[in-house]
Design brief:
Elements lengths: L2 H18 L1 E2 L2 E2 L3 H10 L2 H16 L7 E2 L10 E3 L4 E3 L2 E3 L20 E7 L4 H22 L5 E8 L1 E3 L1 H4 L6 E4 L2 H9 L16 E8 L6 E3 L2 H6 L19 H12 L6
Parallel strand pairs: 7-8, 8-11
Antiparallel strand pairs: 1-2, 3-6, 4-5, 6-7, 9-10, 11-12
Length: 266
């Protein structure tokens, strides 16, 4: 499914839960509780999972190398890192034999290409430090054990977050513009790990999806000029955004992988 359609579906389902206090046949005390149930169900984030999987397939990755398979949320591969083992949202596995080895330390696990997918549509400002630290730590956890492993991260944030307090009254209200420049700066700091010998805290490629959900068709931003034009960042901004965009996300990761593992390409 095209990304613009996925974003429209996410908006519709998110806002329907808020307005009706209903989700999956259940009635909740208020829109915020229904929204929380929707988030916990993983339903809307799974739309993004499938988009990423389809992106890899379009770039030549066989379906049978992708875990969980498209349209499914299981089985997720649990990879044992330096500090802890964690389920990976999307894994590209070059060799079937690796599937059973990921839950224990095994050096060949570094050949698994791993992508995690996250979103935060409300409570972004007050939780961003915790969310960012967690994102930072997860790359470090795996790269300390598997320095050559190729890691990707997809993160969806709104230009204007949904107001949690308004949800209590079943109202869809948007707060003032989020600190977009800060988020770009933060994610650039952990993006584009070029060498397998350093910067273990970085991802080989981060995709930051910045979306305006106020519009009937949510607007996705993929360049600084558009953000400046719509008054979302300062005209004096010196940050680059193109290498954080969704464009060529899967392609970039595959190229990095094939260069790093020339004898066992995906």
């Amino acid at each position: 499914m095209a990304l613009n359609k996925i974003l429209k579906r996410i908006k519709k389902e998110f806002e329907t839960a808020i307005k009706t206090s209903k989700f999956n046949g259940n009635i909740y005390d208020n829109g915020n509780k229904a929204k929380e149930a929707l988030i916990r169900s993983q339903k809307i984030i799974n739309y993004l999972h499938d988009f990423v999987k389809e992106d890899f397939i379009k770039n030549g990755i066989p379906k049978n190398k992708i875990y969980p398979p498209i349209k499914q949320s299981k089985p997720e591969l649990k990879i044992q890192g330096f500090l802890k083992a964690k389920n990976q949202d999307i894994s590209i596995v070059p060799e079937k034999a690796l599937v059973k080895k990921t839950s224990e330390y095994f050096s060949e696990v570094e050949k698994v290409l791993s992508v995690n997918v996250r979103s935060q549509l409300s409570s972004l400002a007050k939780n961003i430090d915790t969310l960012y630290e967690r994102t930072f730590a997860e790359a470090l956890n795996l790269h300390l054990s598997y320095p050559r492993q190729v890691l990707g991260e997809v993160y969806l944030i709104p230009t204007h977050e949904y107001d949690d307090k308004a949800m209590l009254k079943n109202k869809v209200v948007f707060k003032k513009v989020s600190k977009i420049e800060d988020y770009i700066k933060m994610f650039q700091a952990i993006n584009q790990r070029g060498s397998a010998e350093k910067d273990e805290y970085k991802y080989e490629r981060v995709c930051l999806l910045i979306v305006d959900f106020r519009k009937p068709q949510p607007k996705l931003y993929s360049d600084i000029k558009s953000l400046i034009k719509d008054g979302l960042v300062s005209e004096k901004i010196s940050l680059n955004f193109e290498n954080l965009s969704v464009n060529n996300f899967a392609k970039d990761l595959i190229e990095i992988y094939n260069n790093r593992f020339s004898k066992s390409k995906l």
